[in-house]
């Protein structure tokens, strides 16, 4: 990428529109240089001469700057956001951060996500975190106070409260119930051949 093109992206330079498009590998979205979204890291940027090239490379058009002139369907947009959440649930994911990542407004993202998924983005993030916490409680010996931060819930009291709200059990009770239901290993000692 040339310094001139990078400056156009950072400055949201409308005079560069039509000369090139840029895509962001981490989000899967491509934009016009004039897009008002937060500038990506230079190492995550891929440049294209035409919008069709970005589409052929399986990047999706930005909801904010509409580089193809058409609007991204709501289902595709929300699919992009849920894929991002599924890959990054352990990070700090606020509605503002998700809106910025997906090139939409927080209000529009919240409303559209709920319409498409039946839950808000925050509820989806919480479900994903608790789902992963259940897996870790059942499948590892990690301490409860380590599992919360591992799934993006660094506050132990909040993690316990949210886990209990979602499952009906505290994390320790969930682990105890799960471990007590697993079959015990049977010893072959004393058996004759």
From TrEMBL:
Keywords (A to Z) from UniProt: Activator, DNA damage, DNA repair, DNA-binding, Metal-binding, Methyltransferase, Transcription, Transcription regulation, Transferase, Zinc
GO MF annotations, alphabetized: DNA-binding transcription factor activity; methyltransferase activity; sequence-specific DNA binding; zinc ion binding
Gene3D superfamilies attached to this UniProt entry: DNA Methylphosphotriester Repair Domain, Homeodomain-like
Keyword set includes Magnesium: no
Source organism of the structure: Cohnella xylanilytica
Entry keyword annotation includes Cell cycle: no
A Pfam family reported for this protein in Swiss-Prot or TrEMBL: HTH_18
A single BP term in Gene Ontology: methylation
InterPro entries from the UniProt entry: Ada-like_dom_sf, Ada_DNA_repair_Zn-bd, Homeodomain-like_sf, HTH_AraC, Me-P-triester_DNA_alkyl-Trfase
The HTH araC/xylS-type domain, residue ranges: 79-177
Organism domain of life: Bacteria
Cofactors, names only: Zn(2+)
Protein name as it appears in the record: Methylphosphotriester-DNA--protein-cysteine methyltransferase family protein
């Amino acid at each position: 990428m040339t310094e001139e093109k990078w400056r156009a992206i950072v400055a949201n330079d409308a005079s560069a529109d039509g000369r090139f498009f840029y895509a962001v590998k981490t989000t899967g979205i491509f934009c016009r240089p004039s897009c008002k979204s937060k500038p990506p890291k230079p190492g995550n940027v891929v440049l294209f001469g035409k919008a069709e090239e970005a589409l052929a490379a399986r990047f999706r058009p930005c909801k904010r700057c509409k580089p193809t002139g058409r609007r991204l369907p709501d289902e595709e947009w929300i699919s992009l956001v849920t894929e991002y959440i599924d890959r990054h649930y352990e990070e700090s994911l606020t509605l503002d951060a998700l809106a910025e990542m997906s090139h939409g407004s927080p209000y529009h993202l919240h409303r559209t996500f709920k319409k498409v998924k039946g839950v808000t983005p925050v509820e989806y993030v919480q479900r994903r975190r608790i789902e992963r916490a259940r897996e870790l409680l059942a499948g590892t010996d990690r301490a409860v106070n380590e599992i919360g931060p591992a799934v993006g819930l660094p506050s132990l009291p909040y993690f316990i409260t949210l886990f209990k709200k979602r499952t009906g059990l505290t994390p320790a009770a969930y682990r105890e119930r799960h471990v007590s239901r697993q079959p015990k290993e049977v010893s072959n000692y004393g058996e004759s051949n």
